[in-house]
Amino acid sequence: MSTSHADELLTALEVAALLKVSLRTFERVIQAGNGPVCARIGRQRRWRVQDVHAWVAQQQTLSPNPEKGASHSSGS
Questions:
Q1: CA–CA separation, 7 and 25 (whole Å)
Q2: Tens digit of pLDDT for each residue in 29-74?
Q3: What pLDDT is recorded for position 35?
Q4: Selected residue with higher pLDDT from 27 and 60
Q5: Residues 6+ away with beta carbon under 8 Å from 29
Q6: Residue 42 falls within a domain, yes or no?
Q7: What is the DSSP letter of 43?
Q8: 12 domain residue, yes or no
């Protein structure tokens, strides 16, 4: 059975490395219920690469850019 790279399953440590954050930071995101969709295999959690990338893209569209508002004035 062959899987594509997008379907590859990652551990929490591998996802943290992909996101360039510490494992502890990623675990906090998971505990808050704000992380990417995961699959449970027994007691283990695994994340598909494509789901992590989709989650990152969603964060980009939901998170306001604090610098944008600061650089524009709302003149009359």
A1: 24
A2: 999 999 999 999 999 999 999 999 999 999 876 556 666 555 454 5
A3: 95
A4: 27
A5: 35
A6: yes
A7: T
A8: yes
Radius of gyration of the CA atoms of the chain, in A: 16
Query: 13: pLDDT confidence band, cut at 50, 70 and 90?
Result: very high
Higher-pLDDT residue of 7 and 44 is 44
Within a domain: residue 74? Answer: no
Query: β-pairing, 44-48 with 9-10?
Result: antiparallel
- What is the number of domains present in the chain? 1
Q: How far apart are CA 53 and CA 24, in angstroms?
A: 20
How far is Cα 6 from Cα 34, in angstroms, rounded to an integer? 21
Domain that holds residue 36: 5-57
User: Does residue 14 form part of some domain?
Assistant: yes
